Amino acid sequence: MSDMKDTHTHVHVLEDGTVITHSHGDRGQEHTHTHTHAQTKAVLNRLSRAIGHMESIKRMVEEGRDCTEVLIQLSAVKSAINNTGKIILQDHIEHCIVDAVEHGDKDAIRELERAIDRFMK
To answer: What are the residues whose beta carbons fall under 8 Å from the beta carbon of 60, sequence distance 6 or more?
Structure first.
C-alpha cells in the first residue's frame, strides 16, 4: 500500500431524492464517512425501544425478579439488537457497498467483512 493519500468523492441519492455527497480520505484510514440512510429513522426507533426494554430489565434485576424472567427479557433484547444490526447491514450494502463496488473501493469491502465478522460473534 502506498503512502500517497487517495481522496475519493461520491454521491448517494436516497429514495426521497435527497442527494448526499461525501469523501473518503486516506485509504489507509478507517472508513469513517457519515451520511443518512433510508432506514435511519427505523433504526433509531428500534434502538430507542431496545434501550427502554433494557431499562425495564434493569428495574427487574433491582426488584429481585425471577432470573428466568430476566433471561427471557434479555433474550428478547438480544434478538431486537440483532435484527437492528441486520437492517443496518442491509442499508449499508444497498448504499455504501454498491457505491464502493462501482468506484473500485476494495477497502470498503474489507471493512464490511471485518464488521460482519465482529457482528456475528
So the answer is: 69, 70, 73
For 56-107, how does the pLDDT look when each residue is reduced to its tens digit (9 = 90+)?
999 999 999 999 999 999 999 999 999 999 999 998 888 888 888 888 888 9
* Adjacent-strand bridge partners of 22: 10
Question: Going along the chain, which residue ranges are E strands?
Answer: 8-13, 19-24
pLDDT tier, 50 (very low <50, low <70, confident <90, very high otherwise): very high
Average model confidence (pLDDT) for the chain? 79
Query: Which of the four CATH numbers 1.20.58.1000, 3.30.43.10, 3.30.1050.10, 3.30.70.260 does domain 38-120 have?
Result: 1.20.58.1000
For residue 53 the three cell numbers come to 426494554
| Cα distance between residue 88 and residue 35, in whole Å | 13
Whole-angstrom distance, CA of residue 44 vs CA of residue 52: 12
